[in-house]
């Protein structure tokens, strides 16, 4: 009896099998995520150690590359909407692979420059936004609606697993072989991802589009128009953009506070943010059974509200073991709530968006989130200089407490649209 109960609980937690094609897509996603985390921090290290870049150049590499990449991705959304998504996914993987491989090649030839690093970061950022938008549309044609939450839970769990495993392995590799090698490993991961997506197979017809229609400048705003016109997507859009931006804006200030004034060592700083990632893995595994029992709407409200209460606790950060445990506790609670919230929110977004608008909608969403993060990071950098890191972190935490007001406040039902006919995936 106990074994049967255990088996039923495992089935509820892990969900049903989603087939060979999803298995290949999942493996491709996991491979590229691991490669990304293996190379985490490699670009700044190359800029500092090899090119002797200063703080301003390193900051520009971190923010300008992403911002310009987001701008480049804007016209790609409408273009990708009417292309076969599987081909787009493979093309974006190969583009990221090729761009990253230019770095070890230039390093070996002794011609690596800061401009090249910046251009590669732009290509990778634009391809990343386009890939994530196209993957949402591809997933919706690959699986029936009732399996979307299961798929998003598996992606979220994989992302947090890569977060736990990747940075320590990448740090060891950088210490032994240097950051250029980890960039090459990241490039290979995208090549393997493209091969995995190719292995999904199946027939995907070209999306219907009037052959005489040409993309107009106004079409670039289609994704934003659809989001802002939808009464349930609109508050979720503003909530996630503001929440992510405020959380990420305090990261540099927290590093300054911990590694500077409070005297934490680099390994303690790394531990403070690596160990809590286990909360994301646990939270993502709990998302499906919680949503099944209480409903997606309630889980979005509760987990989205709970994740906002943790960051303000960082204002009480002090030195020593107590301070380290405080950061770990705050991050663990925050990441656990995000692990529950993220797959439910991603599923809800797919369910609310018609298939022929997914790429434009997800692209607009991602561009806005990245631009908001870049802007708020710059603003909080100024506030940290004027008010001090601790006060600026506290201000961000106080503003985060208001973000649940932007969450959905009433019940909703997914938009209905015709199910894809057999063979369309």
TrEMBL record:
The lineage of its organism: Bacteria, Bacillati, Actinomycetota, Actinomycetes, Streptosporangiales. This is MFS transporter. It is a multi-pass membrane protein. Gene3D superfamilies: MFS general substrate transporter like domains. Keywords: Cell membrane, Membrane, Transmembrane, Transmembrane helix. It is found in: Cell membrane. The keyword Amino-acid biosynthesis does not apply. The chain crosses the membrane at residues 21-46, 58-76, 236-260, 266-287, 299-318, 324-346, 358-383, 389-408. Its main location: membrane.
